[in-house]
Specification:
The structure holds two protein chains of two kinds. In chain A, strand 1 and strand 2 form a beta hairpin. Chain A has a single domain, classed as ABC transporter involved in vitamin B12 uptake, BtuC (Orthogonal Bundle), CATH 1.10.3470. A two-stranded antiparallel sheet of chain A has the order 1-2. Chain A is globular, with a radius of gyration of 19 Å. By secondary structure, chain A is an all-alpha fold. Chain A is built from 13 helices and two strands, in the order H-H-H-H-H-H-E-E-H-H-H-H-H-H-H. By secondary structure, chain B is an all-alpha fold. Chain B is built from 14 helices and two strands. Classes of the chains: A mainly alpha, B mainly alpha. Chains A and B meet through helix 5, helix 11 and helix 13 of A and helix 6, helix 12 and helix 14 of B.
Chain lengths: 313, 311
């Protein structure tokens, strides 16, 4: 546990250093509104990375490339159903969560029962969901507006702290508790560490695997639903940007593809670090080309670092 | 027949025959020479990039950076002439050098530094995309028209695109008769056993990446000869398509089992599916959805057949 906190602490310290550095480059980078915006963006990134956290811990080279599609699903269909009305938010949120969980379950079934590699399975599911959303958008011409409550939740602050950041902390703590203190959470870790041993000691390994994809779909769809409150309206490809970045964040946060290891604390800190870094590069007016190259290099460096830390153990 | 089944080619061949029959039914002119050669010209980039992916998957790894790699090479081809004033040949040479360096970078990171290929090629794909954007922030530039005409032409009635594909796959078949080709499959099938048999596992995997990126280079040449311009987003779909073609082609993602020819058949089958969707008059809004469904059906088919064989 201390090791996990140490990684998280290191990443958080790095983000603070970057913020102070940013203030030298562009004065106002440390201003209240700027920091508040960063925390909001980190919250969405962190929630999508939470999806990857569950799937990665359960192991077997598990990654979920359908988080973007599920996020778009929650945003687009959610906006279509609430029609800008606050009264519909809660039932629609429940419905979207279920829809995301259903999509995740299909991926999970493919992975756990048919042995399709997670990468391929979730990519194929993502293209079906995205394709379905294209059809839905063009035929139904649905409402795309957010509702006042969602805008409040995703965009505004309480006592100076962004609401969505508070929600993120609550969900993050619940996830950490679920993974470390409940029986099912421990089964997820056990399955990731050694699926054979887990099976022999009575864990329903297949159920565990299906469940992590379902949880991932649920969180992704709900996050997409909240995202329309921040962006203002739903659009095709709403969640696309989060597919790559959520995996990057999870890996930098100390998750291993082999599974059975890592904590969400590190991942959350990595979400903040990546958000600060992105906005720093943007304010420094580095082109898209430069940002992509820097990102790729940073990911490689962190992979090397994680490897080095593993060896030290 | 047994040899085909052994190579896992049956599902992909079956699918190929079915979609080909549907194609002929929908589009009676398909079997004319002009139509066939324009089809093969369209499919060649996908076939070549899928073959590249197949080589890497056979060695037990994966490369998610082939798509942005194609973009990078395409942008280099279209931009180097105006950027440094090079002619066609120096541009082709420099682009080949970039391709081999990209393959070598992936190879070093995966084989020697031993980072997981899934994530590390994700990382390098961002770098290739950045380089593509550096060459071409906006789509544009131009590839020599001579090059395009050459690709669209034919020798003794055989389309250049077909010759390109056959020569590339033929070279691979020749390589399989030499130690390196066999070692690649051995390393993919069981790296520990391969190591104990005295094979330099790291070197073989590294070579696999380098050879594969020669195929990526050929694929980017084929696509650039058709578009005759540079676009940093051009190659992005190839990552998914190549992995799908490899899986449909009966190559085990665990490595060591399958044949590059299977990936080629898988790529042609996927291209013909796109044809069916187009010629059946399905509106473009349904295309993405149908493509996903077809890939899923092909996947379940492949995995169910594979399962029965294992049982």
């Amino acid at each position: 546990m201390t090791a996990f906190l140490r990684t998280g602490g290191l990443l958080l310290a790095l983000s603070i250093v970057l913020m102070v550095l940013g203030n030298f480059v562009t004065p106002g980078f440390l201003s209240f509104t700027q920091v508040s915006t960063q925390l909001k963006i980190s919250a969405f990134l962190g929630l999508f990375a939470l999806c990857q956290t569950f799937v990665l811990i359960a192991g077997g080279e598990g990654v979920d490339l359908s988080v973007g599609a599920n996020g778009s699903l929650g945003g687009i269909v959610g906006a279509a159903l609430i029609q800008g009305q606050d009264s519909a938010v809660l039932p629609v949120a429940i419905l979207m969560g279920l829809a995301g969980a259903a999509v995740g379950t299909v991926s999970g079934l493919g992975v756990a029962l048919f042995g399709v590699p997670p990468l391929v399975m979730t990519l194929a599911i993502a293209s079906i969901v995205n394709g379905g959303l294209i059809i839905f958008e063009s035929i139904a011409q649905p409402a795309i507006a957010t509702s006042p409550f969602l805008a409040q939740l995703a965009g505004r602050t309480t006592l100076g702290v962004p609401n969505i950041f508070l929600l993120w902390i609550a969900i993050g703590l619940a996830a950490v508790w679920f993974l470390s203190a409940t029986a099912w959470g421990r089964k997820i870790f056990g399955t990731g560490a050694n699926a054979k041993v887990a099976l022999l000691s009575g864990t329903h390994v297949r159920m565990v695997k299906i469940s992590v994809y379902a949880i991932s779909g649920l969180i992704a769809a709900l996050t997409g639903f909240c995202l329309i409150g921040y962006v203002g309206a739903a659009f095709l490809g709403l969640g696309d940007a989060y597919v790559l970045s959520s995996i990057v964040v999870a890996v930098i946060g100390g998750m291993s593809l082999a599974g059975g290891r890592g904590s969400y604390v590190g991942v959350a800190a990595a979400a903040i670090l990546i958000t600060v870094l992105t906005s720093l590069l943007t304010t420094m007016q580095i082109s898209e080309a430069g940002r992509q190259i820097i990102f790729g290099c940073i990911l490689v460096v962190f992979l090397l670092l994680n490897r080095h830390l593993d060896r030290a153990h | 027949m047994r040899a085909l089944r052994h190579a896992g080619l049956l599902p992909s061949l079956g699918m190929l025959i079915v979609v080909f029959a549907i194609n002929v039914a929908l589009q009676p002119h398909l079997l004319t020479r002009g139509s066939l050669s324009s089809n093969i010209a369209t499919f060649a980039p996908t076939i070549l990039v899928s073959a590249a992916q197949a080589i890497i998957v056979l060695s037990g790894e994966l490369d998610l950076s082939v798509g942005t790699g194609v973009s990078m090479l395409n942008c280099a081809l279209a931009t180097l002439p105006e950027l440094v004033g090079w002619g066609l040949w120096p541009t082709l040479g420099a682009t080949f050098a970039i391709a081999v360096m990209a393959g070598a970078t992936n190879g070093v990171l995966v084989a020697y530094v031993r980072l997981p290929s899934l994530i590390v090629t994700f990382a390098t794909s961002a770098i290739w995309f950045g380089i593509a954007l550096f060459f071409r922030p906006q789509p544009g530039g131009s590839v020599d028209q001579v090059f395009g005409d050459f690709y669209a032409g034919s020798v003794w009635g055989v389309p250049i695109a077909l010759i390109l594909v056959l020569v590339a796959l033929g070279l691979w078949s020749v390589l399989q008769r030499y130690p390196l080709g066999r070692q690649l499959l051995a390393v993919g099938g069981n790296p520990v056993a391969a190591f104990h048999a005295g094979i330099d596992v790291r070197w073989v995997k590294f070579c696999g990446y380098c050879i594969a990126w020669c195929f990526v280079y050929l694929g980017s040449l084929a696509i650039s000869a058709q578009t005759l311009s540079g676009d940093s987003r051009l190659g992005l779909p190839y990552t998914l398509t190549s992995v799908a073609a490899v899986v449909i082609g009966g190559i085990s993602l665990a490595g060591g089992r399958g044949s590059v020819w299977g990936a080629a058949f898988g790529a042609i089958a996927l291209g013909l599916v796109a044809n069916v969707i187009y010629f059946a008059g399905i509106p473009s809004i349904y295309q993405e959805f149908f493509k996903g469904i077809v890939i899923c059906i092909a996947l379940s088919f492949t995995f169910i057949v594979g399962r029965r064989k294992a049982a």
